[in-house]
Specification:
31% of the residues lie in helices and 27% in strands.
Length: 485
């Protein structure tokens, strides 16, 4: 069984997309391949077949590999709840809440989970493509590292280092990172991949030759900037969105400080008849047909932020003029009358007033809800598929008019006038039937459907085609033990 690790000189250097592309390339070549991310810090997550929780980017890589996501593929997931603390997920399950310093001391225990999960994957797959986190040259984090070279050393696997030339200074990125590694880490770094190159490769070749001469390590490929690539982001929200010209439906989404699973909105970015806009802090709130309140890792604190930004008044004005509001997960909880967190599971203990738009009270309780679900949109034939990832139990008369029927279980809520809608389900717009039915309910009258699953597959194939064309795949395969090839 073989493992290859992809590390990056910086966050967002392109590690996730390179891993996804390699998984699809190896799948095409007949390998049983799985992605692996030892440690991830992200608020975008997915529910696995074994009822666990992993980062969305790893779930996408599993799709690229043609396998079902499993909690072993991302054994440590950190979900930030503040600038200094996070919820700790070990092998898919909540372990607890820790500050940054406490987690640093906890890494030895976390490493045991990492290695146990990696060994479990080794028994099931021919090749594991592992992804690092951030940069291996973050000196302050190197002690007890499990995310980058700490894992690579324990697993004794080769590493390829990815640098992003679009940011500038790619040669300094690559050489500087290498210089800050130990001798053994330098030795296991077999070479480089340069990402997001624009222009004539002939102008870059002298630099590539210098890099190989300077480091003694080859460049395995230079990937061009892939225009229009939209795949599940690991965490950051891009506030600049595609705006459909004269779109029949305009949707605005507040970019909450602890927004979770903003990948829910990727299908809407692509829909030809939807103009989607994320609204950041201190930005004016524009007129829209629909306001969507997204998921949140810290519902009460993000609700307070929403009120400070004036969204409560803007939503009331929006409703008076006939607009619609959809709340998803934490956003659904915000629509209610109260959010009660007596034990401080998402921050400070206490009970805070919601927006008061639905007769609903949410109480945060131990035991996160994690499940993939399917059902139908109430009053329609549209099939819905989604997933739940939330703390909290919501109760109230608003639930007597559900949005979905999940195999006989009512889910979500729709106000009597149909203006206010709430649900705990993520991934609602990923499947064409549900996307069409929900957008119709939100006011889009046309019959055009958008199939985001087909888009994902197309983008993964496009990514793999790019790697096949611009990376020496045979040289990459030669890094693996002969029995794995």
């Amino acid at each position: 069984m073989a493992t290859l690790m992809i590390q990056g000189t910086t966050s967002d250097a392109g590690k996730s997309t390179v891993v996804a592309g390699l998984c699809r390339v190896l799948k095409r070549r007949g390998f049983r391949v799985a992605p692996f991310k030892p440690q991830n810090m992200a608020l975008n997550s997915a529910v696995t077949e074994d009822g666990g929780e992993i980062g969305r980017s790893t779930a996408l890589q599993a799709q690229a590999a043609g396998v079902v996501p499993h909690s072993d593929m991302n054994p440590v997931l950190l979900k930030p709840e503040s600038d200094r603390g996070a919820q700790i997920i070990l092998r898919g399950k909540v372990y607890g809440h820790m500050g940054a310093l406490d987690y640093h001391a906890f890494k030895r225990t976390a490493q045991e989970s990492v290695m146990a999960a990696w060994h479990a994957l080794q028994r099931r797959y021919d090749v594991i493509i592992a992804e690092g986190a951030g940069s291996p040259a973050e000196i302050n984090l190197r002690k007890g590292d499990i995310a980058n070279m700490g894992f690579a050393e324990s697993a004794d696997c080769p590493v390829l280092l990815v640098g992003d030339i679009d940011r500038g200074g790619v040669f300094a990125q690559l050489v500087g990172t290498l210089e800050l590694l130990s001798k053994s880490e330098q030795a296991r770094t077999r070479g480089f991949i340069i990402n997001r190159f624009r222009g004539d490769i002939g102008l870059l070749n002298p630099g590539l030759e210098w890099l190989t001469q300077r480091t003694g390590k080859p460049v395995f490929g230079t990937l061009p900037y892939l225009q229009g690539l939209l795949l599940d982001a690991e965490d950051s929200v891009g506030l600049t969105q595609k705006t459909a010209q004269a779109a029949p439906l305009t949707i605005v989404v507040p970019a909450l400080p602890r927004i979770s699973n903003h990948t829910d909105f990727d299908p809407l970015r692509l829909h030809p008849h939807v103009a989607l806009h994320f609204i950041g802090p201190d930005q004016p709130i524009p007129a829209a047909d629909v306001i969507i309140l997204p998921g949140s890792k810290s519902t009460a604190s993000d609700l307070a932020w929403l009120k400070r930004q004036g969204w409560d008044n803007a939503i009331q004005r929006h409703l008076r003029y006939g607009g619609k509001v959809l709340g998803i997960c934490g956003g659904f909880q915000m629509l209610g009358e109260w959010v009660d967190d007596p034990d401080g599971l998402e921050g400070q203990p206490g009970k805070v007033a919601g927006l008061g738009l639905l007769s609903l009270t949410t109480r945060m309780v131990l035991g996160k809800q994690l499940r993939n679900v399917s059902g139908v949109l109430v009053g329609e034939t549209a099939t819905v598929m989604g997933y739940e990832i939330h703390n909290g139990i919501s109760e109230g008369s608003a639930l007597s008019r559900p949005l979905f029927d999940i195999n006989g279980r009512p889910e979500g809520s729709v106000s009597d006038d149909g203006q206010i809608i709430g649900t705990y389900l993520h991934g609602l717009f990923d499947h064409p039937d549900a996307c069409h039915g929900l957008l119709k309910q939100l006011g889009l009258a046309d019959d055009e459907q958008s199939d985001y699953q087909a888009h994902r597959e197309h983008e993964l194939d496009r990514l793999a085609d790019m790697l096949e064309a611009h990376v020496d795949i045979e040289a990459v395969l030669a890094l693996l033990p002969s029995e794995s090839r």
